[in-house]
Write a structure and sequence with these properties.
hydrolase activity (chains A, B, C, D), 194 residues, 8 strands, eight-stranded mixed β-sheet, NUDIX_hydrolase-like_dom_sf (chains A, B, C, D), homotetramer, Nucleoside Triphosphate Pyrophosphohydrolase, DUF4916 (chains A, B, C, D)
C-alpha cells in the first residue's frame, strides 16, 4: 500500500493565490515539487478536529474517511503543505476549510506551538511516522470545530468518535502513516487519553 | 498597599453549591479559611481573557479594573480559588462568569496544562508573584471570550488593550502582586509579545 | 484496596525545615492535616523519572515499587505534597530525593508548566484519577535522572521499563489511582507513546 | 543591513553526511538551495543555550556574537537548517555543536514540541521575524548546556547574560531578524521573564 501525506492541490501550487503558469518565482510545477520532495524536508500542518462541550472539554474526535488514488479507503486527519509565503496559521485554516468545508467554523488555537511535531520519513522505522513519498515535518494542532462539516475534495466523510474509540488499535490500523499515534498524542494533550 | 489575590466569595466557601451554615464537612468558615491560608498553599486558577480574530490570533487582552476594600483602584485579571471537590476547569469557568458576567461566553482551552504556574508568596522576592495574605499557587490560562463582558461583583470594568499596550511597564505598575509579569507570560504563550 | 496518594512525611509536616512540635503557625499536626484534606484541594507534585540518550530522547521510564501500609505491593511514581512556603520546584526536588535517593541527580525541567494537571478526587469517576483520602491536584513533570537510584523510605525499588512496557494495560492495572494514565500522558508529552 | 538566518554549511549541504559532489539525489548545490529558498518554506531549528542551577532554574542565557560576511557584528542564537532525512533533534544537536563546540554538552529537551514556532518572512512586518533571504519556519528550543562553549565557525564568542540583561531593548536592537523577541519568548517559557 502506498502511504502518503495528502496534499490536495489540484490546480498547482500557487503561493499568494496566483494562477498556475504565471511567472511568479514562487510557483512550483508538479515536476519541481516532486524534485523538491526528494531533496528537502517539506513543512506540513495537521489538524485534529474535535468537538468540545461548554466547559472546553473534548467530547469527540473527527476522523476523515478518504479514498486513495487506487480506490482504497483510509482514515486520516486534516493535513497539508505550508506554501511559500504563507503563515502556518493560514495554511492550517486553508486545509481545514478544504477538508471540512466552509461551514465547519474551526476555532484555531491562539498558541503557535503545536501539541507535537510529527516527522514523516520515507524509510519506515526512523520515527513513528512514515510517508513513502517524502520527508515531511508536520506541526500538529487540536482544533475545536463549532459548525457543520461537509468534506470537500477527496475526503468522503467525517466520522465523529469518542476519545475511547479514537484511541483503539482498530482505528490506528486503518490510519495511514502512523497517524493512529498522532491521534493518541492529540488525545493526551487534551487530557482525554486513558 | 495591601496586595491580595482576589477571592470574592461573599456568601462563604460552599463547595458543591451548598449554602453557608450547612453541616457539610467541606465548608470552611471565614475563620477556618484564614487559618488554612497561613498553613497550606492555596490552589488558584487565573484567566487572561482575550479577543481573537477569525484565524485564532489574539488581538486584544481584557484587563479588569477593581476597587480594593480600601477604595484603591487596581488592574487585575480573572482569579480565584479552587474549591474542595471542584475541577480546575469548573473553577476557572465559575470565576470567569463571576468576573465577566454570564454573557461573556468564554471558550476554555481543551488542554489541562496552564501556560504557566504562578507562585504567590507572602514574602516578596521569593518569586515574581506576591500575595501578602497567603501562599497561593495559580494555574494560569489564556481564555478567548466571544461574548459581551459585564463585570459583576467588585470588578468595575473590563478594559480591552492591544498586546503592545498590555505589555507596557505602565500597565505592570498598576497591577497587583506581579500580574504584569503574568500578562507578559500570557502574551508570550500566544506569540503576541514582541 | 485503599488507593492513596503517597505522602511520606513521617516526622510531620514542617515547612521551612523546622522540627515537629515547634510553634510555627505553618505547622500542621496529623489531625489538622487530616482535617484539611477533607475541606480543601491539596497541591501535589508528581515526577516521572526517565533515562534519556545523548540526544535527549527518552529510552526508559522509572516506575517505583511500593508496599502499602497493608503490605500490598503497588507500582507508582514520585509523588508528594507541596508544603506551605515551598516552591513547586523545591517540592519536586525534595520528593525525587526522598524516593530515588541522593545519588539520582535529577535534571528538573527549566519550564514551570507541567505536562499535565492530574486531578485526584475521593469519588471515582469524576476524572481519570482517584484518591480515596483527599481531593489532590497534581502538577506532573517528566524528569530525566542521570545518576543511580536507591529508593528510600517506603519505595522498595525502581524498575526501568521501555516506553512500550510502560504503556501496557498490564502495568496500568498495577498502578494506583489512575497513574497508568499519567504514565501514558507523560510518554505522549515526550513523543514516546505509539 | 542584510538580515539573514545563519546557515553555515561551508562544505555544501550533504544529507546523511555524504560529501559534496556525490550523485546523492538529496544533495542540493548552492544554486539549487538558492532556488529552493525562493519557492518553499525552509525548515529551521533554533536553540537558546542556557545555564541552569541545581534545581533546573535558568540563571543565564548564552548569546552568540557573530560577524556577518560584510564584517558587521551581530548578536544571535544557535540556528540552522534541517536537512533532508535528518530528524529535528539531530539537526538541533548538529547546529549546537557547530556553534558552541564539541565540549558544550547540550542537554536536549525530551519533548518534541518547541517553545514557539518562529516564522521568518522575506517581507518585514508579516510576523515578528524577518529574513530577507527566504521564508523560514523555525522550531525554537531552550537548551541547557553543562559544558564549556568554544564557538566554532563564524560565531566569535558566547556571552552569558542574566535573564534581565537578555530581555532588554538594548540587546534586542543588536539581534538580527527579530531574535530579541525570540529570546523573550524563550525566557517566558522558562518563567524567567519579568
Amino acid at each position: 500500500m502506498s502511504v502518503r501525506t495528502p496534499d490536495p492541490e489540484p490546480t498547482g501550487d500557487e503561493p499568494f493565490g496566483q494562477s498556475a503558469g504565471s511567472s511568479n518565482p514562487g510557483w512550483l510545477s508538479e515536476v519541481e515539487l516532486a524534485e523538491a520532495r526528494r531533496r528537502m524536508p517539506m513543512l506540513y500542518v495537521e489538524g485534529v478536529p474535535v468537538r468540545v462541550d461548554g466547559m472546553g472539554q473534548v467530547t469527540e474526535i473527527g476522523i476523515l474517511l478518504r479514498a486513495t488514488p487506487m480506490g482504497e479507503m483510509t482514515r486520516t486527519i486534516v493535513s497539508g503543505r505550508v506554501r511559500y509565503g504563507e503563515t502556518v496559521r493560514d495554511a492550517l485554516f486553508r486545509h481545514l476549510e478544504n477538508d471540512l468545508g466552509p461551514m465547519a467554523f474551526p476555532l484555531l488555537p491562539p498558541q503557535p506551538s503545536p501539541f507535537t511535531v510529527a516527522e514523516y520519513f520515507p524509510i519506515p522505522g526512523v520515527s513513528a511516522f512514515h510517508d513513502d513519498r517524502q520527508h515531511a515535518v508536520s506541526l500538529a494542532f487540536v482544533v475545536p470545530v463549532s459548525g457543520t462539516c461537509e468534506p470537500r475534495q477527496d475526503a468522503l466523510e467525517v466520522t465523529w468518535m469518542t476519545p475511547e474509540e479514537a484511541a483503539t488499535d482498530a482505528l490506528a490500523d486503518e490510519m495511514e502513516g502512523g497517524r493512529g499515534t498522532l491521534i493518541r498524542l492529540a488525545l493526551a494533550s487534551v487530557g482525554a487519553l486513558r
